[in-house]
Write a structure and sequence with these properties.
By secondary structure, the protein is an alpha+beta fold. It is 44% helix and 17% strand. It has two domains: 72 residues, Phosphorylase Kinase, domain 1, CATH 3.30.200; 182 residues, Aminoglycoside phosphotransferase (APH), C-terminal lobe (Aminoglycoside 3'-phosphotransferase, Chain: A, domain 2, Alpha-Beta Complex). One of its GO terms (molecular function) is transferase activity.
């Protein structure tokens, strides 16, 4: 474990344990009954997320000599959401709040983020696909679908998207406060990026209209197409990622998922 920057920031008397996460730069720190969550080089708009009540409270920020920034957040006792919890009105409500936040949108623009369009997503997915995957019929069928529909999924409605609304990234505190954490993949894009993933992965199709009405939108044909488009793209992305990691079980899962989707 990379303790040096942790002890530099907090001192030797604290105990540290890895907190998982995709970057591996997140830790829990504990001293007696005090516990905080530390992260190195987290998203620069963490302060806005904290102010909006979307992530646990930001306590302080420190810049290290090498330019790295360490953030400390309140550590909350609670649990990750389970797949069945994704039906909740609190989930729809928090996602709506995020998508409607002008503060988040302004902040992402200020740090140089540009809106991501369907063509950008398609280019990125195709570029990263392993040559072995390109030999598979279902993968080519998915790419053909994305190419054919990319002009039909255009929308002027762009928002801040989390881009990984997996149930593991939702934290429910013991006080029943809901948070969405791990914002490393945040982007300015079509809200269908988040909504599509959430509905396709967690909500039965017959319950989509109800969930969408909780979110405050209407389930139109155009929204359905946009959701499907981004879920196909995300599935190809995950397929490529697991192929690279040589995780055969996960590769098989996403190939089967694409078959079902198309």
């Amino acid at each position: 474990m990379e303790i040096n920057w942790l002890t530099y920031v907090l001192g030797n008397e604290w105990e540290f344990s890895p907190a998982g996460g995709s970057t591996g730069d997140a830790y829990f720190a504990q001293l007696n009954d005090k516990k905080i969550f530390l992260k190195r080089n987290s998203s620069p708009f963490l302060a806005v997320l904290s102010a909006e009540g979307i992530v646990p409270k930001l306590i302080w920020t420190k810049r290290l000599e090498n330019g790295d920034v360490v953030t400390a957040q309140q550590w909350l006792s609670g649990r990750e959401l389970k797949p069945v919890d994704m039906y909740g009105e609190n989930v729809a409500g928090l996602l709506k709040k995020i998508h409607q936040s002008n503060e988040l949108l302004d902040m992402l623009r200020r740090i140089g983020k540009k809106p991501i369009e369907a063509k950008d997503v398609l280019e990125d997915v195709v570029r990263k696909l392993h040559p072995d995957l390109r030999k598979m019929n279902i993968v080519n069928k998915a790419i053909e679908f994305l190419e054919k529909e990319q002009d039909n999924v255009k929308t002027d409605h762009i928002v801040v998207c989390h881009s990984d609304v997996n149930h593991n990234n939702w934290l429910l505190s013991d006080e029943d406060e809901l948070y969405l954490i791990d914002w490393d993949g945040a982007m300015i894009a079509d809200p269908a990026v988040d909504i599509g993933m959430l509905l396709h992965w967690y909500i039965k199709k017959e319950d989509w209209p109800k969930w969408i009405s909780l979110y405050g939108m209407e389930l139109t044909d155009h929204l359905l197409l946009r959701m499907k488009w981004y879920v196909v793209a995300q599935s190809l992305h995950l397929l490529g990622w697991y192929q690279l990691k040589n995780k055969k079980k996960e590769v098989l899962h996403w190939l089967q998922y694409l078959e079902k989707l198309l």
